[in-house]
Amino acid sequence: MAKADGTFLFIGTYANEASARADYNIAKELHAVGAVGSYDAAVITKDDDGKVHVNKDEQSTRHGGWGGAAAGAIVGLLFPPSVLGTALVGGAIGAVSGHLWRGLSRSDVKELGDLIDSGEAALLVVGESTLEDALRKAGLKAEKEIAKHLDVSTRDMDEAVRQAADEVS
Fold first, then answer.
1. How far apart are CA 160 and CA 91, in angstroms?
2. Per-residue confidence band for 81, with pLDDT thresholds at 50, 70 and 90
3. DSSP code at position 25
4. How far is CA 93 from the centre of its chain?
5. Per the structure, how many domains does the chain have?
6. Cα(62)–Cα(44) distance, rounded to whole angstroms?
7. How many Å apart are CA 126 and CA 37, to the nearest integer?
8. Domain assignment of residue 156, yes or no
9. Mean of the pLDDT values across residues 141-149?
């Protein structure tokens, strides 16, 4: 059952990017029909050289409310900069990372980071606690998944994103 004002994190792995993208589109549809509040999502792939790539549909993140900062912050926590094939820089990601780090243990970070292997894809979705029930009911097709409640208030996340956006603009 969802917590009243917490942040929910879902990471699922898929055999390929197309399968992950199909579930990504389901998350976008859930937001479009009002089933979830603020959220951010990304499809993550790891190439044969071990580089991690974050694939986002920028329009969906704008509608999600957190402007891409939440998913970027999670990826930045899970993978060292040396394996990131995409530059994840900016004040919003740094500000949000601090909030998310308080909600994850070191073992959580290791478990989440180890979930994706070369040649596979992952879907990362982070958002309000309403996300948990909506994703469960939607029947996502992940081969493996990890779902975590983070002890981080969505109000705190909203404020961190707002402050960071003000600093960047």
1. 10
2. low
3. H
4. 12
5. 1
6. 18
7. 11
8. yes
9. 91
Q: What is the helix, strand, coil percentage profile of the chain, to 5?
A: 50, 20, 30
Is 1 part of any domain? Answer: no
Query: HSE (CB half, 13 Å, CA atoms) of 17?
Result: 13
Cβ-Cβ contacts under 8 Å for 87 (sequence gap 6 or more): none
pLDDT at 124 exceeding the cut of 50:
yes
CA distance 1 to 153: 16
72: how many CB neighbours lie within 10 A of its CB?
27
How does residue 80 score in pLDDT terms, banded at 50, 70 and 90? low
Which residues span the domain enclosing 25? 7-168
pLDDT digits (tens, 9 = 90+) for 9-63: 899 999 999 999 999 999 999 988 988 888 889 898 888 887 888 887 654 444 4
Inside any domain, residue 146? yes
- DSSP element (H, E) containing 109: helix 106-113
Q: Is 163 a member of any domain? A: yes
pLDDT of residue 18: 95
Residue carrying structure tokens 């029947």: 139
